[in-house]
Design goal:
Blueprint lengths: L1 H16 L6 E6 L3 E7 L8 E2 L5 E3 L1 H19 L4 E13 L3 E2 L3 E11 L3 E10 L2 E15 L3 H15 L3
Antiparallel strand pairs: 1-2, 2-7, 3-4, 4-6, 5-9, 7-8, 8-9
Amino acid sequence: MALLKKAEGLFQQLIKMRFQLIDKILRFDKNKLILGVKGVSLEANNFVPSSQGSFIYPVTLCLESLAQLGGWLTTASLDFACLPVLGMISRAEIYKEAKVGDSLFVEVELIKLSDEISEVKGEIRRGEELIVKVKRVVYGLVKTKDKKLIERQKRTFQSLLETD
């Protein structure tokens, strides 16, 4: 019990330091699917040079975007009572590079959800063009009863769902 309380306290600190790599959630089907979009802009200031001399959005951040969206699918499907902790990304296939000006559509589908773990799979596309495909992302789940944290998570999720 003490370990769980300590973990919850740590997550409360970490949640304040998070950065969002998803700009908007376009669709959310509880316990099934979530679709989000990430606009790649120069303002992000996190590009790496490509072999052609242009700048690309790092694949690691593409994977993090997908993992974050899978985390939102998990936590919202559990009514924000659990915090997902990324445990593993496996079988990631990289097809193309993301560039400045791209709108990346990230789709994540729930494979398994229990009280202790969540598993998802997902894809990132630029229009119809497949950029990244991940066959398995696994999260450990930490239960929380912290009402302030739950409300903060709900507000953040709702702000990502809101339309312009």
